[in-house]
Amino acid sequence: MKNTAWKLISVASAVALIIAILVIPIEQVLAAPLAVGSSLISFSLKNVDGNTVSAADFADKAALVVVFSCNHCPYAVAYQDRLIALQKEYGARGVQFVLINPNDPKKQPQDSFENMQKRAKEKSYPFPYLFDETQQIAKAYGAARTPEVYLFGSDRKLVYQGRIDDNTEDKQVKTRDLKNALDLLLADTPDKISPRTTKAFGCTIKWKN
């Protein structure tokens, strides 16, 4: 009887552990996002035009906005036009946006490189759209969702990380976090950016097994 009881307890404990693992938020499983004040993590990835684009290509820019995004996620799709508008608005002031797709196309065929090329052409992307095929860049940044942004100043120190704004419906936005951070950064007052981090909302990155 004692052996049977211990076996039942062991099984129950194992089940409880599995359930606990399943309900842990994805953000707790992955590394924490790159901390504010951290240096830019360099990248060199294939762009939709077939060329390789690296962080060093934008060394002369006043700010670099790294956005983890993709094709399939409705949240990422909702922000496409806003990101395009931000690049056009701030490009003349030395701000460069770079979109990076970290998803495994085997899990989300819409996020294949070929479909990335189609989307970039359809939307006339004014910024690079890069494929993080190995997912090493997304992991290094601690990215968990699409879209998720990382804003770096001219010294390539991270000044803001998280969401673009507070609502997927543009007309219902009350706080434009990224835009506010850009304005303060370009005014040479990055210390006034508040909050410096926000919780990104969107689809979880589709990791390889």
Short structural description:
The chain has helices at residues 2-23, 26-29, 74-78, 80-90, 113-123, 136-141, 177-186, and strands spanning 44-47, 52-54, 63-68, 95-101, 129-131, 145-146, 148-152, 158-162, 203-204. With 209 residues, the chain is of the alpha+beta class.
Notable traits:
209 residues; alpha+beta; 7-stranded mixed sheet; Glutaredoxin; two-stranded antiparallel ribbon
How would you characterize this protein structure?
This protein is α+β, with helices and mostly antiparallel strands. Helix content is 33%, strand content 18%. It has one domain (31-204): Glutaredoxin, CATH 3.40.30.10. It has helices at 2-23, 26-29, 74-78, 80-90, 113-123, 136-141, 177-186; strands at residues 44-47, 52-54, 63-68, 95-101, 129-131, 145-146, 148-152, 158-162, 203-204. The protein has a 7-stranded mixed β-sheet, covered by helices on one side. A two-stranded antiparallel ribbon has the order 6-9. A hairpin with a 4-residue loop joins strand 1 (44-47) and strand 2. The longest helix is centred in the first third of the chain and has 22 residues, at 2-23. Mean pLDDT is 90; it is low at 8-29.
Topology:
Elements: H1 2-23, H2 26-29, E1 44-47, E2 52-54, E3 63-68, H3 74-78, H4 80-90, E4 95-101, H5 113-123, E5 129-131, H6 136-141, E6 145-146, E7 148-152, E8 158-162, H7 177-186, E9 203-204
Parallel strand pairs: 3-4, 4-5
Antiparallel strand pairs: 1-2, 1-5, 3-7, 6-9, 7-8
The strand count comes to: 9
**Molecular shape:** globular
Total helices: the number is: 7
Helix/strand order: HHEEEHHEHEHEEEHE
Q: Are there runs of 5+ residues with pLDDT below 50, and where?
A: 8-29
- The residue fraction in helices comes out at 25-40%
